[in-house]
Amino acid sequence: MTILAQQIVLGILIGGLYGLAATGLSLVFGVMKVLNVAHGELIMLGGYAAFWLVTLGALDPFVGLLLTVPLALVAGVVLYGGLFAFVVRADEERRVKNSLLIGFGVALALQALAVKLWTADERSITTSYAGSVVTVGPIAIPLVRLGSLVLALALTVGLELLLRRWRWGKAIRATSEDWQAALLSGIDVRRAYLLAFALGTGLAGAAGTLVAVGYSISPSIGLEWTLKALIVIVLAGLGSMIGTFVGGVVLGVAEAISAAVVGGAYREVVGLLIFFVVLVVRPQGLFGKS
Amino acid sequence: MLEVRDLVAGYGEFHVLAGVTLTIPSDGMMALLGPNGAGKTTLLRCITGLLRPRAGSIRWDDTDLSVVRPHSIVERGIAMVPEGRRLFARMSVEDNLDLGAFAPRTRAGAAAALERVYALFPVLAQRRTQLVGALSGGQQQMVAIGRALMTQPRLLILDEPSLGLAPRVVEGIFTALADIAQTGVAIFLAEQNVRAALTLARRACILESGRVTREAPSQALLDDPDVRRAYLGPLA
Predict the structure, then answer these.
(1) C-beta separation of B14 from B39 below 8 A
(2) Which of B75, B88, B148 faces A177 most closely, judged by CB atoms?
(3) What ipTM was reported for this prediction?
């Protein structure tokens, strides 16, 4: 029983990162109707940015977020201007296909670049407090992972507030609901796309930083994180960032339980099973509006 | 004054507009009539920039709108209430209205514009915090018109505002449109309800198979036996 509880706690901790990874992808997909399959690679790059900041700059990784997130935002602007701005000119049905092609291309290129620059080694950030744990009864909670969960939640709440209160946040939501009606309201929809994409990339940078602190990174982790994010989006549905975060935690817990009950080999299967069941039973997702 | 000249537009291989020439006066109300599929919505989408015409021009304030992006057309003073209202259903009444004042030109006057919208449709003031999805069809149409008014337009275009609404509700909407026209905003109204449109508007034009076939004062069209037979039915 204690083992199961311990696994569930670890599942919640990783689930928060699944959630954060998914919010960025969900935002971009919801607003631009573009599926950025290179989202996982952006997370990977965020992880490396944090790793080098900590290793060479001797920064605390959580403080490093103050640099990795703005860097990722800028990378998002460049990536949008260079590649995705052309995709959103197509009508919505053609966007997804074109974005898949571009996304896979970007993913492969970034992966190869990362191998070239930093080798294929697995790396992770070690801090002076890396081994610290908080114990609650028999359960041990690693301090860095707990910090990551709290930050992931804070970023998600911050994003939700931004989308609800900020003028351009409302414009982004309006664009995701009905881009033509947004245009008729005087909203520069392409600007809303750019902002949403930059925010999505910024969130990927944040997620990457937290992954590098609590877990590990290597050039090839991208696809796995894109898949997790996709499963979470299908599970949670579009439209609510908090809902997406909760969806991530649900996935993390489901994986943990399956690993504890039927064995670690089936960890990845449970996500795909959830993917399938949700699509059949509730295609709009747990928190999505049909 | 908006001048449309030789406008050709369509979707894919379809030509919908086959050379539309038309002048919308800078005040008063003009109705756009015609059967389904004649190209009314296509014409309105061209004027508001949602569809790029293949040929022809749309002149407004000495600029050709056919190359201006839609949000800049709003900025230049043309607003549209689209067919089917197209509200942001997951947002409150007030958020929907606020978004109408998104363009830089409109922000300074947004508070006053909001007051005017609430004065025109008092029920919206009572429902300001509700999600628009929870409103009745008539109230949603009021929000759609209100959102367009928040852009503080000089020309207000409406695409079938009576669609799917009960006759009494339509009457209220049309009364509001007459009030709006009184304030000096030009109105261009595409409408299936021909009799009501001709009663309300000063002038009207008829679009058939992608061309303007008639343009005349409303009274002249109401008195024309051909128009009566085609659009007002045998009992008219």
Answers:
(1) no
(2) B88
(3) 0.94
Q: Which CATH number fits domain A2-281: 1.10.150, 3.40.50, 1.10.3470, 2.120.10?
A: 1.10.3470
Say if residue B44 is exposed, middle or buried (CB neighbours under 10 Å; 0-12, 13-18, 19+).
buried
Helices (H), A166-266: 167-177, 179-184, 189-214, 222-236, 241-262
Closest residue in chain B to residue A183, using alpha carbons only: B71
Candidates A178, A186, A289; nearest CB to B102: A186
Instruction: With cut-offs at 50, 70 and 90, classify the pLDDT of residue A151.
Output: very high
- Give residue for tokens 């000119």: A89
d(CA B156, CA B74): 10
Amino acid letter, B190: A
Among B48, B55, B44, B86, CA closest to B69? B48
Tens of pLDDT, residue by residue over B132-169, are: 999 999 999 999 999 999 999 999 999 999 999 999 99
Report if residue B35 sits inside a domain: yes
Single pTM value for the model:
0.93
Interchain pair B90, A181: CB under 8 A:
no
Report d(CA B219, CA A151) in Å as an integer.
Answer: 68
Name chain B contacts of A188, Cβ cutoff 8 Å.
Answer: 69, 71
Distance from CA of A243 to the nearest CA of B (A): 15
Residue A163 contacts residue A243 (beta carbons within 8 Å): no
CB A187 within 8 A of CB B102: yes
User: Could you tell me the two tokens for B115?
Assistant: 């007051």
Taking an 8 Å cut-off on Cβ atoms, the answer to whether B88 and A180 are in contact is no
The total number of residues written for chain B in this structure: 236
Q: Which domain holds residue B22?
A: 2-82+152-232
Looking at the predicted structure, is the pLDDT value of residue A290 above 60?
no
What is the number of structural domains in chain B?
1
A·B CB contacts under 8 A = 66
CATH (domain of B215): 3.40.50.300
Q: Which chain A residues are within 8 Å of B49, Cβ to Cβ?
A: 183
Which B residues, 83 through 112, put their C-beta within 8 Å of a C-beta on chain A? Answer: 86-91, 95, 98-103, 106
